[in-house]
Amino acid sequence: MSLAGAAPRRKQSPVITAEHDTSDALLRARPAALLAWYDRHRRTLPWRAPPGATADPYAVWLSEIMLQQTTVRAVGPYFDKFMARWPTVTALGEASLDDVLKMWAGLGYYSRARNLHACAVAVTRQHGGRFPDTEEGLRALPGVGPYTAAAIAAIAFSRRTMPVDGNIERVVSRLYAVEDELPKAKPRIKALAETLLGPSRAGDSAQALMDLGATICTPKKPACALCPLMQGCTARLRGDAESFPRKAPKKTGTLRRGAAFVVIRGDQVLVRSRPAKGLLGGMTEVPNSDWLPDQDEAAAKAQAPALKGVSRWHRKAGVVSHVFTHFPLELAVYVAHAAAGTRAPTGMRWTQISTLSDEALPNLMRKVIAHGLGD
DNA sequence: AAGTCGTGGGC
DNA sequence: TGCCCAAGACT
Fold this sequence. Notes:
By secondary structure, the protein is of the alpha+beta class. The protein has helices spanning 24-41, 57-66, 72-85, 89-93, 97-104, 111-126, 135-139, 146-157, 166-175, 186-194, 202-215, 234-238, 297-301, 363-373, and strands at 256-265, 268-273, 284-285, 314-315, 320-323, 328-337, 348-352. Belongs to the Nth/MutY family.
């Protein structure tokens, strides 16, 4: 690792030291330095083509959608499952939305799955099974925003554009000590990030910055000594790299409470589907009450489904706690047993407990059912 | 334009 | 433990 700290201090401008060299020469050298680092330290990931090879646009798109606000670790098995079952965008475009939701269950942000399916349908039916190869064309697809469009254009189609994700925001905001808070600083960070593009290999430049952000320029305790861009990194020189990017403190949502009802009929449990849009849109759930701040247990329990031929409700000890992005939730769980032949109320259905793993069950509902079935 | 939208892991 | 964070998009 060449740290390049041996360059002599400049005598003409005492403020600018070799370690804080922001000369034109250094700035021009950054894209190549970044790519050189990438060639040695790039992560091997399932959706990445081997060095020098062209990436499959479908794999790039699928991975980019899954990786939105989601860790590489969490995405790995889902990406493999999707690629095995639907190897092409056309195959995915011919699948049912329900099958896609089932496969996505557990990964979170379910609007992504709905948009994923809509996008595959659009590419299949309106684009002849081929992804648009321009940023503008990609941006028009469902679920493809400014970041994802730029990422696919650069990585899969070698377009000279720089996607800006959370990693790149962090790296660039430190490099230039951008004081403006996010999201106000986004346009400036985008412009600064583009200065790291060289004449070619835009996709590798972007992935290099992402890998850098994920492994070196981390949110906490960045390993600046190992960074190929350490020279002239303003935040590092100031010694407060960790304080970037600046962002307004986020408020935590208020706790909401409710009740969930696990009705067991032999080896089956009563479920229904949530409305297509909104929280957990289109996913499967057991009947449950409203989720409201300061809702007392009696009010929640009063929302139990009306069923004939069902035992009394038994409240399981404790609660199921879950944390959504914008509020925490506590659900009391009630269990009842239904006689064989008991009809499911309108809009509900019985499903085999043994095949729940195949349902489009969000993890919250997996926790609820496990709590209800447990001792 | 600020709020909505999951989940798991790290410290 | 509680809080922050992760390859953002949509409204």
